[in-house]
Amino acid sequence: MLRRSLWLCLCLCSCPARGLRIHEYLYFQVLSPGDIRYIFTATPAKDFGGVFNTRYDQIHLVPADPPEACGELNNGVFIQDQIALVERGGCSFLSKTRVIQEHGGRAVIIADNAYDNDSFYIEMIQDSTRRTADIPALFLLGRDGYMIRRSLEQHGLPWAVISIPVNITSIPTYEMMQPPWTFW
C-alpha cells in the first residue's frame, strides 16, 4: 500500500500536465451516503478519453439509467456536468464514454458487471472505430460499483456525492477509509 501510494505520488508530481497514464490508479472518495464513505480505487482507460486536470471536491456520481449506457439515457439530464457511474457490458467502453460525453458528463466511471470482482482491473481499450472521447473514463471493480449502487437504492437516492481525484499520499494509512470488502 505504501509503495503504491509513493509510486502514485511520484508519477502525479512528475507529470501533472499529462495526468494519469496506463496502469496508474486514481482515487475518489464517496462523501454521501455515509454508509459507503470510503476511498475507492479506479484505473484510467488505456488509449482513449481525457485526463483529470481538475479536482472536484463535491460532485454527483450519477448511476446511468439504463446502467449499461449504450444508448439514450432516461436520466441524461442528471448526468450533465456530473460524473456518471455505468456498468460494463452491452457495448464498448468507448461507446459508453461517448454516450456520457454526449449527455454533458464530465467523466465516466465504468464498473465491472461481475459483482464479485474485488481485485481484477480490466484494461479499457479503444474499440477500433476511430471515434474519440474527450472526457476521462475510469474502470472500477465490480464489487465497488455494486456496493455504491446498492447503497443508493437502499437510501432512495438518485446519486452519491464524491470527491475526485483524492491524493492519498497525504492521508496517514491508519486514517484511510478503505472499503472493508476490498483488499488493498
TrEMBL record:
Signal sequence range: 1-19
GO CC aspect terms: extracellular region
Species this protein is from: Aquila chrysaetos chrysaetos
Compartmental location: Secreted
Superkingdom of this protein's organism: Eukaryota
Keyword Secreted belongs to the record: yes
PA domain: residues covered: 61-145
InterPro entries: PA_dom_sf (IPR046450), PA_domain (IPR003137), PRADC1-like_PA (IPR037323)
Protein name as catalogued: Protease-associated domain-containing protein 1
Known role: Plays a role in the modulation of physical activity and adiposity.
Principal subcellular localisation of the protein: secreted
Keyword Secreted: yes
Pfam families (alphabetical): PA
Gene: PRADC1
Keywords noted in UniProt: Glycoprotein, Secreted, Signal
PANTHER family reported for this sequence: PROTEASE-ASSOCIATED DOMAIN-CONTAINING PROTEIN, PROTEASE-ASSOCIATED DOMAIN-CONTAINING PROTEIN 1
SUPFAM superfamilies: PA domain
